[in-house]
């Protein structure tokens, strides 16, 4: 059997039209979906981790990660406008580089979406449990964290995952409306932080600017500016979820590029302002031992942070800075806003994952019954419920730990494949209509720059994360060989 078979773009579009979802989302809703997916655990939680890896140099890390995402977003915009169907990077790879690689991209996207959803659910549960405690309510310890965090069952993370899954089953429009409200709440919280922290910034807090240097992609330490960029990349992940909504978008040729690029621009501006405010107002020098920065999340780091008042030790960095500036009430309000609004990220991650599974099922790489659409709600309810159940199960047992970096590994692989796909299609199908088109003079610098950037950031992840990614890829290849290769629609087509 030929695992390199390509599914023509015309066939992909025709299949989507036969088993389509209802088109009901506009440019504003798509932009809100993108912002909802992007602004989350990354900026509210990982700011302290980035500071530990790079100190004030994390400002450069934000720029590096944002630049790589911007280049990839342009590639996504061209392909999403040209092929307005669900499936994101999986679909584009299928049309350009073949079925086996498309399967691997779809398999890698599980790390971006489902693993991210579980990670955000666990991170959010920490905020919510703290909020309950401040009101005099406290769950037993064994219900506050999962088995791998010395507990038994993370009840809050489990419950919020199932609640969001139910919302997604009820309908896309309803989900988008709830998401738009939560996005506005998150943006309001970040705006409050920026207004208070940026004017309080002091030049002295930016010295030394590069306490851990630039870092090396080959060191495997994950430290330095590049290591922080590889981690903070998680703060940008999610804009591509807009492309998974292509089949539910009105006028997708126009609105998908607006949603992709618009959401990324808004979030990049906020991230730079938030990073500048956090560093300038409170300082962000890493914890060092014998001249070497400690690894965030390590036992050594936890021990060094005992009794130490330092931004890099905080689990709620933005609230920490506001309290230090003498605004404890504002710090509480930002923490409250994060507790209320972070579920929008879980919503978008589960939403994106179900749409990718929906498309893979429609192509026969997963069982066909998974792509069944509910007769009343017009949503892929079967795969939504299955995905939500697994996200809830993982969230109930696992810790946040290195999940962000693991998610980044899969995302970087997908972004690189999409950028390569744009270049290949420019030569194999130069006359195909492109409603959104990267200028010819810029297509090589943009797409090659995106691929190189993704490779550099992937290599800058720590060695454990890279090993987990390759192990995950190996499992995916086995599943494809046992099921997908034989059951795909392309395999059943008469030659």
UniProtKB/TrEMBL annotation:
Spans traversing the lipid bilayer: 27-46, 58-79, 100-127, 147-169, 181-201, 221-246, 258-279, 330-352, 382-404, 410-429, 441-461, 467-485
Any one Gene Ontology molecular-function term assigned to this protein's record: amino acid transmembrane transporter activity
Annotated membrane topology: Multi-pass membrane protein
One GO term describing the cellular component: membrane
Subcellular location: Membrane
Record keyword Nucleotidyltransferase present: no
Keywords on record: Membrane, Transmembrane, Transmembrane helix, Transport
InterPro entries assigned to the protein according to its UniProt record, in alphabetical order: AA/rel_permease1 (IPR002293)
Full protein name: Amino acid permease
Species of provenance: Metallibacterium scheffleri
